[in-house]
Design goal:
The chain has helices at 26-37, 39-51, 77-87, 98-110, 131-138, 152-163, 168-178, 184-187, 195-202, 205-211, 226-240, 253-261, 318-327, 335-357, 368-381, 387-398, 406-414, 422-441, and strands at 2-7, 11-12, 59-63, 71-75, 118-123, 214-216, 219-224, 274-280. It is of the alpha/beta class and 444 residues long. Mean pLDDT is 84; it is low at 160-165 and 284-297.
Length: 444
């Protein structure tokens, strides 16, 4: 295998794409993808403009035997079609998709300087060598050999940890897990509770009214005494954990109405028993109260400064420490200033690490990409940082299309026609923060 940056015009859409029946030309292959994917192609193109291509999932190609310097796409046809449409929306010829074509044109107009013209590809001399990996990606778990999909609960846990948002159902599960009012026999089985069934119940306002709970800006709360609320939720958990439970019992609004009408009398919350104050399910205490209604978790992209205040770095170099402080104070709206400072901060941090740890294969005069690769390898090889973090950083810095690619970082300083975008700068910092923290943790 060889990794190479290839121009989009040199990539040929697979006329024998496994998604469809074989076709005879590039035009037919693109038309068929547009017909099948339609709006999804636009969504994909929009995401690529914002986040770049996934560095962990490169386009896979094989040299064409019939067209010199061209490559047949083995894996990644959908992504390449999206990118080709971003470069030439006139490829959408069917008037049936005029709206899609116009949306692509508008997307291009807004992001003229951010349209990819080339992509990183993995080249297989023999296309059959890629077949195993393509099959593994697209055919499910394969008894653990392939990618094991997350269930709904695991997805929600990811959203909570990474994106700072917790679903109502996950809040209910957590309050049941930590409450001393819930029997251990129920707590021990909570992990088996199917969260999609709980979602179906909690999303119904009649059910919430019956249980004495409400959702305010994504936070589950109640003004009913906690013991009464927990009593009702415990019964719900017990019902959903029954071996013979079927979703048809709560599938429609009428089904859910029947469900609460048949609720055991001894488990019905007494809504007349009010709590002293409104209490929220996200509190750290199982019987905590809240003086005011909780605020909705903020979107990380909405923050005003590149480096969040909660990121504490112990920097012993006065100048670098001053830059770090400025990046916590300058409004992100000043994207050019922030971008240039970010580029300087990253390189000076690496220089301090290289000098302190006496790295021999690199020095302060080396190119930025070499500094990043050598520092990441040193951290990984000496078990000073998680290997996945280091590999991710090395992959990103090697990718010219990545927000942390050295081409991008250098363009912030040297390219007069390239303008940084505030959200992209925040995404870049969030992707490298742990790496930078490890760099400064290991500078003595």
């Amino acid at each position: 295998m060889e990794i190479k940056v290839i121009k989009l015009v040199d990539l040929l859409i697979n006329t024998e794409n496994y998604r469809f029946e074989p076709v005879s030309s590039q035009k037919e292959a693109i038309d068929l993808m547009i017909e099948d994917q339609n709006e999804k192609l636009y969504k994909l193109a929009e995401d690529i403009i914002i986040h770049g291509l996934n560095p962990n999932d490169a386009i896979q190609v094989s040299p064409s035997r019939h067209e010199k310097n061209k490559y047949n796409i083995l894996e990644g046809n959908r992504r390449v079609v999206s990118l080709k449409l971003l470069n030439n929306p006139d490829l959408i010829e069917n008037s049936k998709y005029r709206t899609l074509k116009n949306r692509f044109k508008k997307l291009i107009e807004i992001n003229k300087n951010r349209i990819l013209k080339e992509v990183n590809c993995i080249i297989y001399d023999d296309p059959t060598e890629a077949d195993k990996w393509i099959k593994l990606k697209h055919t499910g778990q394969s008894d653990g050999i392939g990618t094991v999909d997350w269930d709904a609960k695991q997805i929600q846990r990811f959203d909570e940890k990474v994106e700072g948002k917790s679903s109502a159902s996950l809040q209910v599960i957590k309050i049941l897990e930590k409450s001393n009012l819930v029997p251990e026999t129920v707590k021990n089985k909570i992990a088996n509770l199917k969260i999609t069934n709980l979602d179906r119940l909690i999303s119904d306002p009649n059910v919430r009214d019956f249980l004495g709970i409400e959702i305010e800006k994504g936070i589950v709360q109640s003004d009913v005494d906690e013991s009464e609320v927990i009593k009702g939720l415990t019964q719900v958990a017990m019902d959903l954990l029954r071996p013979d439970f079927r979703v048809k019992e709560i599938y429609t609004k009428e089904d859910r109405k029947d469900y609460i009408n048949q609720f055991p009398k001894q488990s019905m919350p007494k809504l007349s028993q009010k709590a002293e104050k409104t209490w929220v399910f996200t509190s750290s205490s199982s019987r905590a109260t809240s003086k005011q209604k909780p605020k909705q978790s903020s979107n990380p992209l909405d923050r005003k400064h590149l480096i969040p205040k909660k990121c504490i770095l112990q920097i012993n170099n006065p100048r670098v420490n001053a830059i770090y402080s400025e990046l916590q104070k300058i409004d992100i709206i000043h994207a050019n200033a922030v971008a240039v400072l970010l580029r300087v901060f990253v390189e000076l941090s690496l220089d301090c690490f290289i000098e302190t740890n006496k790295l021999t294969n690199v020095n302060i005069d080396s190119k930025l990409i070499k500094k990043v690769l050598e520092v990441a390898s040193y951290l990984e090889n000496n078990k000073l940082a998680d290997k996945h973090i280091c590999k991710g950083i090395k992959s990103a810095v090697n990718n010219p299309n990545d927000l942390f690619g050295t081409d991008t970082l250098n363009a912030y300083v040297h390219n007069a026609k390239f303008s940084p975008i505030s959200n992209n700068l925040i995404i870049t910092w969030d992707n490298i923060q742990v790496f930078i923290e490890k760099v400064w943790e290991n500078i003595k």
